[in-house]
Design goal:
The structure holds two protein chains of two kinds. Chain A is α/β, with parallel strands linked by helices. Chain A folds into two domains: about 250 residues, 2-Layer Sandwich (Aconitase, domain 3), CATH 3.30.499.10; about 160 residues, Aconitase, domain 3. Chain A has 13 helices and 18 strands. In chain A, helix 2 packs across helix 5 and helix 9 packs parallel to helix 12. Chain A is globular and about 65 Å long. The longest helix of chain B has 10 residues. Chain B folds into two domains: about 130 residues, Aconitase, domain 4 (Alpha-Beta Barrel), CATH 3.20.19; about 30 residues, no CATH class. The chains are: A alpha/beta, B alpha/beta. Chains A and B meet through strand 1, helix 2, helix 3, helix 5 and strand 7 of A and helix 4 and helix 6 of B.
């Protein structure tokens, strides 16, 4: 019987053919844990499970990204404990302060690969779907159990298919598609479903990560992009992993990409989405470019194209937190970073930044932020009296220039007019 | 008698315990006092053990932070009843042994008194008797074990595993 990508990967992980609704025990290929909950994971592992060792140190990745570098003695101490744990366990895949956000790093390092089952201590572990892996976020106890046993239990999810056709207009990107899907499906529209994104073969791995990370924002258990198209050409795709004719999709959402315009998620729900054109004039204090959803080199480069030769609007701060050290290096090499700095932006250490409101640009009461991240919940980035609007890197750059939420195509029109008279 | 604490739809884990109040940033001992600290500051101060959370759909959406349901468990929340739960929260709560019921009781008033018999799923409130839909057998087994760790230690395998 034809299977969805989720059913294929979970059949492989279970060792027999499974289908949606089955409750299975599956072997995990990789377990990711980050600094934020590593103290409690180590505690459950050692004290409650009394596990002397992790099941396979080669298949564990530890990342210091949530508060990196440490902001307090307490977080510094917890990170020191994590490093000690890695040494005790012989875990080589420890990615320390400054390497970047777990999801970005695991994909760059090719630890996340097509067909894998990956569990991570972070809800945006759906990111691994960008390379055709079933990535899913779990809490402390599940991650500790997976570390101890190399296994996890799952209910095989049904699948919601997003079927995109056509091509995106200039100034419109994967983020706009992701937000549009949240608008249509709503925050629980794919609860415990696998979200399969079809018709996006033209997207880069980075843009696929944008879609995969946003899959949890509609409730998805996983967000899978078929590992096909030019960007997937050098991925090692197992021969059993492919979109199968006749697979059962519980629901299909059709999206004509050519009709898509810049989208904005307004405070304080990710599915509170409107066309930017209908949002009105919203003045901002901060523009924040970063996160696993949109903090990659290509996102910074998109912003730099708009910011080249321009300055931030008076009174606007722009924080850029690269998703990884590799993204930062690329931005240095091609001049993107210089352009951003010349425009007046400031740069943070690669990592999660202020996405969880803990450090590196926390918002004050009354402040308004245009954020390229994935959550705009009340208080997410700091004060519960601040307001977060989610948008694409292009919208972020255009907004930084004008000081209010701006369609990047308006600035591009100015550029074109100037070019005509140059 | 338990008191009902009514919440709306799409209650996210940042509302239950903001990331800034994680044990990583503060302390484990204080965790219960941070439940709904910004969304509903009186909750942790005045709720009584056994009180019920009755909410709208998609309760617990957002992050995978287990300290959100853990804070509710440590406070002694009797059960959470909502038409639907975000699944990471559902799983975390199940792993910790917190009873969740998928039912819409949002017609019940905030502050109303109620009783819940967890074994039968019968709720009484204001003269009304409601039977909550029973959870799947494997879910009940995990509850009865007191969470996934005791379940795993007793059974030596996960729910749903072959031979279960």
């Amino acid at each position: 019987m034809a299977q969805t990508l989720a059913e294929q990967i979970l059949s492989h992980a279970a060792g027999y053919s499974v289908q949606a609704e089955d409750v299975i025990t599956a072997s995990v290929d990789l377990v990711m844990a980050h600094d934020s909950i590593s103290p409690s994971i180590i505690k459950v592992l050692r004290e409650e499970l009394q596990a002397p060792r992790v099941w396979d140190p080669e298949r564990v990745a530890l990342v210091v990204d949530h508060v990196a570098p440490a902001s307090s003695i307490q977080t510094a101490e917890a990170q020191a404990r994590l490093r000690r744990f890695a040494r005790e366990e012989g875990i080589g895949h420890l990615f320390d302060v400054g390497r970047g956000i777990s999801h970005q790093v695991l994909i760059e390092e090719r630890l996340a690969r097509p067909g894998m089952l990956i569990v991570g201590s972070d809800s945006h572990s759906t990111a691994y779907g960008a390379v055709g892996a079933f990535g899913t976020g779990m809490g402390t106890t599940d991650i500790a159990l997976a570390l101890a046993t190399g296994q996890t239990w799952l209910r095989v999810p049904e699948t919601v298919r997003i079927r995109a056709t056509g091509r995106l207009q200039p100034g419109v990107g994967a983020k706009d598609l992701g937000l549009y899907v949240a608008r249509m499906l709503r925050a629980d529209g794919a609860t415990y479903r696998s979200v399969e994104w079809h018709g996006v073969d033209f997207l880069s791995i980075g843009d696929r990560m944008t879609l995969a990370t946003l899959s949890i924002e509609v409730g998805g258990k996983a967000g899978l992009i078929p590992p096909t198209g030019p960007a997937a050409a050098d991925l090692d795709v197992p021969n059993w992993l492919r979109v199968e004719e006749g697979a059962h999709y519980e629901q299909t959402l059709d999206v004509d990409l050519a009709l898509l315009t810049p989208q904005i998620a307004m405070p304080s729900y990710v599915d509170n989405v409107a066309d930017l054109a209908d949002v009105g004039r919203v003045a901002v204090d901060v523009v924040y470019l970063g996160t696993c959803t949109n903090g990659r080199h290509e996102d910074m480069a998109t912003a730099a194209r708009i910011l080249r030769g321009r300055r931030l609007a008076p009174g606007v701060r722009m924080l850029v937190v690269p998703a990884s050290s590799q993204a930062l290096e690329l931005a240095i090499a091609d001049g993107t970073l210089t352009t951003l700095l010349q425009a007046g932006a400031t740069i943070g250490t690669p990592g999660c930044g202020a996405c969880i409101g803990r450090h590196m640009g926390v918002l004050a009461p009354g402040e308004v932020c245009l954020f390229t991240g994935n959550r705009n919940f009340r208080g997410r980035m700091g004060s519960p009296e601040s307001q977060i609007y989610l948008g694409s890197p292009a919208v972020a750059a255009a907004t930084a220039v004008t000081g209010y939420i701006t369609d990047p195509r308006e600035l591009e029109a100015v550029d074109e007019a100037e070019a005509l008279f140059a | 008698m338990a008191t009902i604490w009514r919440f709306g739809a799409d209650v996210n884990t940042d509302q239950i315990v903001p990331g800034r109040y994680a044990p990583y940033m503060t302390s484990e001992a204080e965790l219960p006092t941070f439940a709904f600290i910004e969304a509903r500051p009186e909750f942790a101060k005045t709720m009584q053990r056994g009180d019920l959370i009755v909410a709208g759909r998609n309760f617990g959406c957002g992050s995978s932070r287990e300290y959100a349901p853990l804070a509710l468990k440590l406070l002694g929340v009797g059960a959470i009843i909502a038409p639907s739960f975000a699944r990471i929260f559902f799983r975390n709560a199940l792993n910790l042994g917190i009873p969740l019921f998928e039912a819409d009781l949002t017609h019940l008033a905030d502050g109303a008194t109620a009783t819940l018999d967890r074994a039968t799923g019968i709720v009484t409130s204001g003269g009304e008797t409601i039977t909550l839909p029973p959870p799947a057998a494997w879910i009940r087994e995990v509850w009865e074990a007191g969470g996934i760790v005791p379940y795993f230690r007793t059974h030596g395998h996960f729910p749903g595993q072959a031979g279960n």
